[in-house]
Write a structure and sequence with these properties.
Blueprint lengths: L1 H26 L3 H4 L14 H7 L6 H32 L5 H10 L5 H14 L6 H5 L6 H12 L3 H9 L4 H9 L4 H16 L3 H6 L8 H6 L9 H32 L5
């Protein structure tokens, strides 16, 4: 029985890794081999010089785009963890006559399609002069109603005994949050941090509209430039996709156990 289980897991893992292999394989061969009629799983020759061609392409500043994506993802992740955790803790633990009303309003924002708020957000950002600026890419994503909702659900189930002990020691809500709650919630913070980082890294439509200058492109915008109405640079597109997904793979492999733990601790039932 155990052998069948390992066999099934091995087959599932192989099927999961095949797309990654195909992306890397197509990125390290010539254009003619990609479009050849007789396709082979293993390439006849590996063109390592494709890396040099990719990173020296003057039309697509891939390194700069990846750095921009890294800055945006890190700042948005840090902002969401800071702002949403404080909002979630306030809604879960600080008594106020309108706390439920505020919570319902936050949840209501989750039902508003992104297309509805896209144009008003762009108008605000454009008025502030943040087009082709990192501020226009980062600031609109510093808060997430869904992340605040998850933090509230988690803090509702946080052990009250630890907070009561902190109150006895003279700590208020602020001190209790930073000195007791946050240190004992690092797993949940890490899980939501991974989700926020991956979401921010994969954003395309908003950076496509805001990053109008080549120096402000994110990696997803840079990838789209390999596919135009005039030409398609297939092997560079595949190789750039493989390079751009590497940070996400590293983050996921390093933090995957926190993802499972975060789901189980989120407080969402059935």
């Amino acid at each position: 029985m155990k052998a069948l289980r390992y066999l099934a897991l091995s087959v599932a893992a192989a099927l999961f890794l095949v797309p990654f292999y195909l992306v890397i394989r197509n990125g390290l061969v010539s254009e003619s081999e990609i479009s050849a009629t007789s396709w082979t799983f293993l390439p006849s020759s590996v063109r390592w010089e494709n890396f040099a061609e990719l990173f020296s392409d003057p039309a697509v500043p891939l390194v700069r785009s990846m750095l921009n994506s890294l800055v945006v993802a890190v700042l948005q992740t840090a902002g969401q963890l800071l702002l949403c955790s404080m909002a979630g803790y306030g809604l879960a633990r600080i008594p106020h006559r309108y706390s439920n009303v505020v919570f319902y309003l936050v949840v209501a924002t989750l039902m508003i399609p992104a297309a509805v708020t896209f144009v008003p957000t762009f108008v605000v950002v454009s008025t502030l002069g943040w087009v082709s600026d990192l501020r226009g890419l980062v600031i609109p994503g510093l808060f997430s109603g869904f992340t605040a909702f998850l933090f509230r659900q988690y803090f509702l189930n946080f052990p009250r005994e630890l907070e009561e002990a902190a109150r006895i020691d003279g700590l208020g809500h602020w001190g209790t949050f930073w000195r007791v709650v946050v240190p004992n919630s690092r797993g949940f913070f890490a899980a939501l941090g991974v989700i926020a980082f991956v979401t921010s890294w994969n954003q395309f439509l908003w950076p496509l509209v805001i990053a109008q200058d080549q120096d402000s492109w994110t990696v997803q915008v840079a990838l789209s430039t390999f596919l135009t109405a005039q030409s398609i640079n297939v092997h560079e597109l595949f190789l750039a996709a493989a390079v751009s997904v590497t940070p996400l793979v590293i983050v996921f492999v390093a933090m995957q156990r926190w993802l499972v733990r975060g789901v189980t601790e989120s407080g969402i039932k059935g």
